[in-house]
């Protein structure tokens, strides 16, 4: 598997993803997608939309505002409860999420020497070993073996333990503030005059825009339960410790479905399972590696108070197995809250049962950026061609930023260049195509392999006589001679 360091460098070098505001030193937790990254991301969103909305009869789309009435977030529970526990190092001013900082008392033969404290991440175990060694040395017991070490998150520290726990930055006890709750919503002001009444929030999820439009959609379309409303859009969370590249960022995109069903305890378990399977198959269909996908079924005790069940689809990123998509059953918590806070009836009239109720909902919710990252990790490959290392992005053709590249065999033969440019402009009208005449053909192949272009088409001297071209495949590197009609029929079939 590619390392994060190599992947981040690759993304910048190839114009996939840049740190945002790069020339100003970047802004932690924000990213800009470059020319190729924009295409890749757009292809992911378009495919999700096609598969989840346009290919089905039971899901309709929505595009709600990013800034909603502030009461939406009071009703949803985000104003009071959408927070993470945070601690600060008083000396270095470093800020940590308390559940991502771990501490352990270190004792030798039952005698407590002190505590160590480390941050979560790839280096955690190495850090623990280093800090234990330093503590033993400071107590002149380098030769002793410490008692068993139990790392616990700071959120589990008792108040009386806190004074003993050092800051992970300074290793000095007392340098950390006690944990306090930090609301993750970005605040802004609506209107010209800054006042308490004008406070609004950038949405931390697209889902609430769907709930508040439930009645509008039911009244304006012919949907009948069970049916879904889908939305793709930006979400914003002021994450305390954004990290792992785009995995946990402060501005990201979500693709969410709220799938409404009758409020009936016997119906949702089946439908939940169907959605878990459906979404898992989708991730396989876009090319995520099967061996790196798994499930995390949340235990009842870990569920949010309004959730009836939740299963996450997990992906093995280079920094560990982490959530890619959450599929929760939210009961009718959100509709109930919005009905109560807005004072507007949101019930659905069930014509079969001749009764009104607030439907339940199953919510498959996936991040676009996490999907793109998982795709890049799955597709990135290195092999050897004629003794030379080749980087190849084995993306499914449907998702590849550029579908085909046209090359004249050499650039100093005007008749080849003219024929290649004509072919390029015809193909370009149908698929995103590149034209490249610089350097040896082998080099041009490598450049296209690296950015995942599935096919290269070379115009050579035979093309001038018989109107056929060499089609070269990115993965097999095999070459086939085809006419333009055969070429376009092949692309059509592969990309449908
Ligand atoms: N409406 C439900 C909801 O928002 P969530 O688990 O908080 O649930 C859903 O988020 C998905 O959004 C996650 O599975 C992940 O793919 C993506 N996501 C959440 N926070 C993110 C962040 N800070 N950066 C990138 N993606 C994020």
Summarize the structure.
By secondary structure, the protein is of the alpha+beta class. Helices cover 31% and strands 29% of the residues. Strands 3-12-13-19-16-15-14 form a 7-stranded mixed β-sheet. The chain has a 5-stranded mixed β-sheet with strand order 23-22-24-25-26, sandwiched between helices. Strands 5-4-9 form a 3-stranded antiparallel β-sheet.
Structural write-up:
The strands form 8 sheets. The protein has a 7-stranded mixed β-sheet with strand order 3-12-13-19-16-15-14. Strands 23-22-24-25-26 form a 5-stranded mixed β-sheet, sandwiched between helices. Strands 5-4-9 form a 3-stranded antiparallel β-sheet. With 496 residues, it is of the alpha+beta class. The mean pLDDT is 95. 31% of the residues lie in helices and 29% in strands. The chain is built from 15 helices and 26 strands. Bound molecules: glycyl-adenosine-5'-phosphate (GAP). The site of glycyl-adenosine-5'-phosphate (GAP) has 19 residues, from strand 13, strand 16, strand 19 and helix 11.
């Amino acid at each position: 598997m590619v390392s994060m360091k190599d992947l981040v460098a690759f993304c910048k070098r190839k114009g996939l993803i840049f740190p945002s505001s790069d020339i100003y030193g970047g802004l932690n937790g924000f990213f800009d997608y470059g020319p190729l990254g924009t295409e890749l991301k757009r292809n992911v969103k378009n495919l999700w939309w096609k598969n989840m909305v346009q290919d089905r009869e039971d899901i309709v789309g929505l595009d709600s505002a990013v800034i909603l009435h502030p009461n939406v977030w009071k009703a949803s529970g985000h104003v009071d409860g959408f927070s993470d526990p945070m601690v600060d190092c008083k000396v270095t001013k470093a800020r940590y999420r308390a559940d991502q900082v771990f501490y352990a008392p270190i004792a030798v033969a039952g005698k407590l020497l002190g505590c160590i404290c480390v941050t979560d991440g790839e280096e955690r175990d190495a850090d623990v070993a280093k800090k234990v060694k330093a503590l033993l040395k400071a107590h002149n017991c380098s030769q002793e073996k410490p008692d068993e070490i139990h790392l616990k998150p700071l959120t589990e520290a008792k108040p009386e333990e806190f004074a003993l726990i050092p800051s992970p930055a300074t290793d000095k006890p007392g340098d950390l503030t006690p944990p306090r709750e930090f609301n993750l919503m970005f605040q802004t002001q609506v209107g010209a005059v800054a006042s308490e009444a004008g406070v609004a929030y950038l949405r931390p999820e697209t889902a609430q825009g769907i709930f508040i439009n439930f009645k509008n959609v039911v009244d304006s379309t012919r949907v009948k339960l069970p049916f879904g409303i889908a939305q793709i859009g930006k979400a914003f969370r002021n994450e305390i410790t954004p990290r792992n590249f785009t995995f946990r960022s402060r501005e990201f995109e979500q693709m969410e479905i709220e799938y409404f069903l009758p409020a009936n305890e016997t119906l949702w378990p089946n439908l939940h399972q169907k959605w878990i399977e459906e979404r898992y198959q989708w991730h396989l269909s876009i090319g995520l590696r099967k061996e790196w996908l798994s499930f995390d079924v949340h235990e009842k005790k870990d569920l949010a108070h309004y959730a009836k069940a939740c299963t996450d689809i997990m992906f093995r990123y280079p920094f560990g197995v982490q959530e890619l998509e959450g599929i929760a059953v939210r009961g009718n918590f959100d509709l109930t809250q919005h009905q109560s806070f807005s004072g507007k009836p949101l019930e659905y009239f069930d014509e079969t049962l001749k009764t009104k109720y607030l439907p339940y909902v199953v919510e498959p919710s996936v991040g676009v950026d996490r999907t793109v990252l998982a795709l890049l990790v799955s597709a990135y490959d290195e092999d050897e061609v004629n003794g030379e290392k080749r980087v190849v992005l084995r993306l499914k053709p449907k998702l590849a930023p550029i579908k085909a590249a046209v090359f004249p065999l050499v650039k100093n033969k005007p008749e080849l260049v003219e024929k290649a440019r004509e072919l390029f402009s015809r193909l370009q009208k149908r698929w995103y195509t590149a034209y490249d005449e610089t350097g040896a053909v082998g080099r041009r192949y490598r450049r296209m392999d690296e950015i995942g272009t599935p096919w290269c088409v070379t115009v050579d001297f035979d093309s001038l006589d018989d109107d056929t071209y060499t089609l070269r495949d990115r993965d097999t590197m095999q070459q086939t001679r085809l006419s333009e009609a055969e070429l376009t029929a092949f692309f059509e079939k592969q990309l449908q």
